[in-house]
Structures are given as structure tokens and as C-alpha cells.
Amino acid sequence: MNRPGRRAREVLKPRQRPTRDEGMTLIEVMVAMTLIGILGTVMVGGVRDNNKLNVITRDESNGLADVKTVVERLGRDVRSARSLSPGATESQLVLWVDLNSDYIKSDDEIVTWQLIKETEDGVQYNVIRQTEGGDPTIQARTLVSGIAFCYWTESAAPNQADCAGSLPASTGGGGLSADDAARTRLVTTITTYDALPNAGTGTRQVAFSSRLRNVE
């Protein structure tokens, strides 16, 4: 049997087509860039919105935590007080808390609540509680940006939180007189807070009233 020669075998083999890498066309590149740009915009927007939400949540929760501390501790002092002390002002609350119920005032029973700026050029304050002759204790740090005290002769909370109609207790006028301090039965505290100034939420205000239960 005759076998085909070498040349005949080369003729019978199929011809292989050379492969070519043609790359991407300009239109394909533009489409890909557009899709990447849209995807990047969506991702950046999502990250920005999530960060903004986190800042707002942190601002609100931190501010409320400090206000809650002030409400609980200051309210407890007011309810335990035997009377207010003359000189209490709209920005400084001075109480006589008769700790041993002997009806005799002592230095460690005179409690003062006030605000002290954390820094000279800052907008936030530390809320300070201090007994006469004792060391000041910070009850809230840098979160409360304003506080005001209103004094009333009634035992029920008024339907307003702007101190209108309350006993005169302006700082310039020397605060409450001895007679007004003795007649006070209710203290309203108006607290304005902003944990993160210029970020998150704006200022918030909380007003609460506490009745002196141990008045003479």
C-alpha cells in the first residue's frame, strides 16, 4: 500500500488561522469609564450619608446622656432640699440639703450647681456640683451649652419653659432675696445642649421641673 508523500500530507492538513488581540474600541472604553464613574458616585454618596448619620446619632446620644445625668442628680438635690439659699440666680442654683435632718445648716449641706466654661473661647460648659468648702465635681462635660433656672412659689409646674412670670433672680440683681428663697416651692431647669458644635444636629433644649418636698 502506497503512503502519501510528505508534500501530500502537508496539503491535507487544515490551515490554522493566526489569532489576533484586537483590544477594546474607544466606545467600549467610554462605556466602561461611565459605568465605573456611576458606581463610584453611588459608593461615595453611601459612605458620606452613613458617616453623616453616625455623627448625628453620636451627637444626639452624647447630649442626651449628659442631660439625663443632670436631670437625675440635680433633680434629686432639689427634691431633697430643705430650701433654696438667698443669692440663687438664673445661672446658679444654691440649695440647702439637710442631710442629717437636724434643721441646722452646715457647710457641707449647701449645694451649688453652676456652669463653668471648659475653655475661654469655647461654646460648651462643664456642669459643676459643689458643696460649700468642698471640691467641685463635674457632672457633665462639655456637652451642655446653656442652662437656666426658674423659681416659682407654686407647687405645680407651670405650662411654660421660658421663666416668664417666675421670681426675679437675675445675676445682675444679686439673685433671689431671702424672702423669695423661702417662698420657692418649684425649680424649673432649662437645659440647652449640643455635644458636637458645628456637626451633627443643632442645639436641643430640655426643660424639667422639680418640687422641693422638704421645705419648712
Structure write-up:
With 216 residues, this protein is of the alpha+beta class. It has one domain (47-211). Helix content is 31%, strand content 25%. It has 3 helices and 7 strands. The chain has helices at 6-12, 26-80, 178-183; strands at residues 83-84, 92-96, 110-117, 125-131, 137-152, 186-193, 204-211. A 7-stranded antiparallel beta sheet has the order 1-2-3-4-5-6-7. The chain is elongated and about 100 Å long. The mean pLDDT is 82.
Write the layout of secondary structure elements.
Layout: H1 6-12, H2 26-80, E1 83-84, E2 92-96, E3 110-117, E4 125-131, E5 137-152, H3 178-183, E6 186-193, E7 204-211
Antiparallel strand pairs: 1-2, 2-3, 3-4, 4-5, 5-6, 6-7
The largest sheet, given as strand count, sense and whether it forms a barrel, is: 7 strands, antiparallel
Question: How many structural domains?
Answer: 1
CA-CA gap between termini:
136 Å
What is the strand arrangement across the widest sheet?
Answer: 1-2-3-4-5-6-7
Q: Tally of extended strands?
A: 7
Proportion of helical residues: 25-40%
Please tell me what the overall shape is: elongated
The helix-strand sequence is HHEEEEEHEE
Mean pLDDT: 82
- Poorly predicted runs of 5 or more residues: none
Number of helices: 3
Strand content: 25-35%
| Rg of Cα set | 37 Å
Pairing-aware structural class of the strands and helices? Answer: alpha+beta
Offer a few descriptive terms:
216 residues; 7-stranded antiparallel sheet
